Amino acid sequence: MGTVGHDYTIPYECGSENDYDGRLGVRISAIFVIGFGSLCGALLPIMAARSKRMRVPPLAFFITKYFGSGVIIATAFIHLLAPASDALTSPCLTGPITNYDWAEGIALMTVFLMFFIELMAARFDVFGEQAHDVEAYDPAMDLIRQSEKYDADTTVQTASSQPPESSEQSSQNADTLQADDSPRESKNGFPMTPLPNSHSHNHHNSVPDIEAGEDPSKVITSNSIPGREDDFSYPPGGEDHLGHQREHIDDDHFAAQMTAIFILEFGVIFHSVFIGLTLAVAGENFNVLYIVLSFHQTFEGLGLGSRLATAEWPRSKRWMPWVLGSAYGVTTPIAIAIGLGVQTSFAPGSQKTMIVNGVFDSISAGILIYTGLVELMAHEFMFNPEMRKSSIKMMMFAFLCMCLGAGLMALLGKWA
């Protein structure tokens, strides 16, 4: 007896055949049911964010987004790292692989590799040519902005408290703003409007008059949210994350963002392949796994889909989220079909299968751990200007949604 498989425990003897027990019709139905759930989970957030006809309430998208974040984080630890450790420490294995906890070691190396890849992508401006023509759709951010503790009254009070400018000062300021607003060319030859710190947002900052006694930290923006230009708790690039809408973003952080998206996609697809293979040859526990994995794949699709929907894609790549979401949706059904085709030769209890399964689970775990902790937790909560300015109720609601997603996914780990 032992543990093998991507997400679940099945009985086997070392080196034995699989537990396939027929019921081909039910197994074939899993191809369509799980495929439908996966596609709905991955594509509905994209459709909800972009379609004007659906009119999905921002609250629904908000819950889905942070619920999905929790799902991805729990998947990394409960559904990937734990089974990988079981597979690579199985008593059926022999040789050097038994002398070290390779599951945790491989996951650790993967985390550093993912960081290195993202670092190099940002450093060498991999996606730089497309960084100045992006679109972002995030209804969840609209809901957060409505709860921001800085409202229009704050801006009015700040502006009214300033002493009136002389006509000479007004003329000088007007000339300065006119000079600053003059277009310049970006790398791709299109005009670009410069802003302070060379960071163009969809809100233009007004210039504080320090001589007149204005606090330089309270930079008034067009959306009535004071800027935090002097807040050194923002790390370089702290405003560049998956949920922040802008017309233009820095090349290096755009590259890092795109890299993070593809890393996440790679991790969940790896995960889905082994789910399909092992479900196809499951034995007496097939019915339980069928039900649980249907929810599993749908929830994981929501996590991926919400990230794809809120990422800032170049206008020329607007089709990319649909392709990536569809790729996730069809991966598990294809893997189930392959598993059914090779069910006479596929042996989950063999040393080779357990090693391959454990290694790839460890790699996927490292990918999702990095993505979950860095992109979905740190960037969304700590370095997201909109979230930092939101009310404590809104922040705690987002946190509870994430905990709910992680909790439900962890509960599914009892059966799958």
From TrEMBL:
InterPro entries: ZIP. GO terms for cellular component: plasma membrane. It is found in: Membrane. This is ZIP zinc/iron transport family. It is a multi-pass membrane protein. Residues 160-172 have a biased composition (Low complexity). The keyword Transmembrane applies. It comes from the Eukaryota. Coiled coil: none annotated. Its main location: membrane. Pfam families: Zip (PF02535). One of its GO terms (biological process) is zinc ion import across plasma membrane. Residues 151-245 are annotated as: Disordered. Keywords: Membrane, Transmembrane, Transmembrane helix. The chain crosses the membrane at residues 28-47, 59-82, 102-122, 261-282, 322-342, 354-373, 394-413. One of its GO terms (molecular function) is low-affinity zinc ion transmembrane transporter activity. The keyword Transmembrane helix applies.
